Amino acid sequence: MGRTIIEFEDEHGVVTRYRRHENGRGNVATSAKVDPSTLVEPTAYVESGARVGRSVVVSGGSWIDRDAVVLDHAMIGAGVHVGEGAVIGRGAEIGSFSRIGAGATIGDFARLANDSKVPDGSDVPAGRIPRMLPRARSAA
């Protein structure tokens, strides 16, 4: 049985080739490194240069951007975007529909609630469950 290769061209004309990951059938760029023990669900994408460690779960609809790193035993919820060059620590749990900014670092065993937003370049310390503050209301 041969590998399935698909190609997508982005808005800048850059073509990325993806293969189906052997565990979960998700879409992994040919230059990405994903451990065979990791589950990449069918509608998830791992972009060029990304590295995903052992026993990670990348849930459906999630996108691991270019050059991002996800360390062993992390859990990436559904519909999560891990920004370019971001690092997700060992055993970290990222809640569904969260956005991790480019270059952000999530420490080992940190837990983010669903729909969390981590700005570009931010650092969530190891083992922390960040408290999310409500947005300030605009004066009407």
Automatic annotation (TrEMBL):
Give any Gene Ontology cellular component: membrane
Q: Which domain of life is it from?
A: Bacteria
InterPro entries noted in UniProt: Hexapep, LpxD, Trimer_LpxA-like_sf
Q: Give the UniProt record's GO annotations in the biological process aspect.
A: lipid A biosynthetic process
Q: GO terms for molecular function, please?
A: N-acyltransferase activity
Task: Provide this UniProt record's keywords sorted from A to Z.
Answer: Acyltransferase, Lipid A biosynthesis, Lipid biosynthesis, Lipid metabolism, Transferase
Disordered as annotated region, ranges = 117-140
Question: Record's Gene3D superfamilies?
Answer: Hexapeptide repeat proteins
Q: Which PANTHER family match?
A: UDP-3-O-ACYLGLUCOSAMINE N-ACYLTRANSFERASE (PTHR43378), UDP-3-O-ACYLGLUCOSAMINE N-ACYLTRANSFERASE 1, MITOCHONDRIAL-RELATED (PTHR43378:SF2)
Instruction: List the protein's name.
Output: Transferase
The organism is Labedella gwakjiensis
